[in-house]
Design goal:
This protein is an alpha+beta fold and 422 residues long. The chain has two domains: 167 residues, no CATH class; 229 residues, no CATH class. Helices cover 27% and strands 25% of the residues. Strands 2, 5, 6, 8, 9, 10 and 11 form a seven-stranded mixed beta sheet that branches. A four-stranded mixed beta sheet has the order 1-4-7-3, with no helix packed on it. Strands 19-18-17-20 form a four-stranded antiparallel beta sheet. Helix 4 crosses helix 5 and helix 5 crosses helix 9. The two termini are 32 Å apart. The N terminus is likely disordered.
Length: 422
């Protein structure tokens, strides 16, 4: 996630909306700047609102202490909110200049200001005001639309010409997963951990699914790892798998959004949208199942490989700080991949019909469902083994093992759906 330090990533200046043109010596100018070019993604803005990408280190010059890394040669100084999405690129400003920056976006971001003194001489600096996002408004965006973003700068008491840019406000169901810094050089940053925001263990539908799963009598309770028996964990996962099949969830290959030149994104449904519509693409099905597993305390992961996503779950709690390989975890059965696109392979009766079904018919359905469950595991293992080297190294973009627990610890919050807000 945002693997480059903020100071490093700004040297690309890939997302500056407009260029400054020819400048007279010592003339100060500025250009609007965005982490995601002209697109604004509510899903990313909301879910990362409490994330500090740099941990204990400060990269903003106005916040650094003596213990923080010094600016390296060629790096661009930044000021303000180092975790921000919108900034201004200030050109040819002198050291000691007093600067005020204000950014506002119609309907979703109130005027947000930064005021301070430039402490580093550099050809360019980037300034991020602390954004006053209207998170409630962002939550309601289900279709993309244009919005005006206004940028104002004052230097040493003199106001520069105000600039307004038309941005595209994306649907909250659009999840950005990669940012292209330099297409020719292949510099692409993986931000696929934002997929974890669509895993919503607190969604009201999760309790409904667990209630239905208990009615199937495949398990008497959902106890996570309490029995310390990996087979019990697999049985609990199968009980949830079976009930999703009985809900009629079918695979739907609706996965892309309107493309951006510099940001890759994918449509992801909320939990209730997948259940009510009985449709799920590879990510939808994975986040749906992960939501339920997280609720009952079974640790889950989204496995992102080029063009695809599937689930993996831990049959025993894994200490990821230990020295072991993914291959070892797969062989030991501690980590089990699951291909969720196979959910729709069987047509099963609704759970409400189970009580009146003959035992023979009921057993036949359970056996068919378990066979598909086994095939989903086999397919998941094959997919993971195919990408094992890249998953181990972490060096390939858009190949990632996203721990939902780690994403929560980082601060990536579940996105509330429309149903959650009623």
């Amino acid at each position: 996630m945002r693997g480059l330090t903020l100071a490093m990533r700004f040297q690309y200046c890939a997302f500056v909306f407009v260029t400054a043109g020819s400048l007279m010596a010592a003339e100060v100018s500025f250009a609007p700047w965005s982490m995601t070019e002209r697109s604004l993604f509510p899903s990313a803005i909301i879910s990362t609102a409490t994330v500090d990408w740099n941990g204990d280190e400060q990269t903003a010059e106005d916040k650094k202490t003596a213990d923080d890394p010094k600016l390296k040669k060629g790096e661009t100084p930044i000021y303000g909110d180092e975790n921000g999405w919108l900034a201004v690129q200030l050109l040819d400003v002198t050291k000691g200049a007093e600067v005020e920056v204000e950014i506002a976006v119609d309907g979703i971001m109130k005027p947000s200001k930064w005021t301070g003194v430039i402490t580093k001489a550099a050809p360019e600096v980037l300034i991020f005001p602390k954004a006053k996002w209207d998170y409630a408004a962002l939550h309601t965006v289900r279709q993309q639309r244009p919005v005006n973003a206004t940028f104002k700068v004052t230097v040493d008491g003199e106001a520069l010409e105000e600039q307004t840019e038309v941005c595209v406000l994306k649907s909250i169901n659009d999840c950005p997963f990669a940012i292209v810094w330099d297409k020719e050089e292949g510099d692409v940053e993986d931000i696929s951990a934002i997929f974890a925001a669509y895993v919503n263990e607190n969604h009201p539908w999760v309790d409904e699914l667990l209630k239905d799963a208990l009615q199937s009598k495949l398990v008497s309770s959902f106890s996570g790892y309490q029995s310390q028996n990996p087979e019990d964990v697999v049985t609990q996962v199968f009980a949830i798998w079976n009930i999703l099949q009985r809900r009629g969830i079918k695979y739907s290959d609706i996965s892309t959004t309107t493309p951006d030149a510099l940001v890759y994104s994918q449509t992801v449904r909320f939990v209730d949208d997948s259940i009510k519509g009985s449709q799920a693409n590879c990510v939808d099905g994975s986040v749906l199942l992960a939501s339920v597993l997280q609720k009952i305390g079974i640790k889950s992961h989204l496995v992102i490989v080029p063009g695809h996503c599937f689930l993996a779950f831990e049959t025993v709690p894994i200490d990821w700080n230990q020295d072991f390989s993914l291959e070892e975890l797969l062989k030991e059965g501690a980590l089990i991949p699951l291909e969720t696109t196979l959910l729709g392979s069987d047509d099963l009766k609704p759970v409400t019909d189970l009580a009146k079904m003959p035992d023979k018919a009921k057993l036949k359905e359970f056996e068919a469902s378990y066979t598909t469950f086994g095939n989903a595991i086999s397919t998941g293992i094959d997919n993971m083994v195919e990408h094992l080297e890249a998953l181990e190294s972490g060096d390939e973009i858009m190949t990632n093992l996203i721990s939902i627990a780690d994403a929560r610890e980082l601060g990536i919050m579940p996105l509330a759906s429309t149903m959650d807000k009623k």
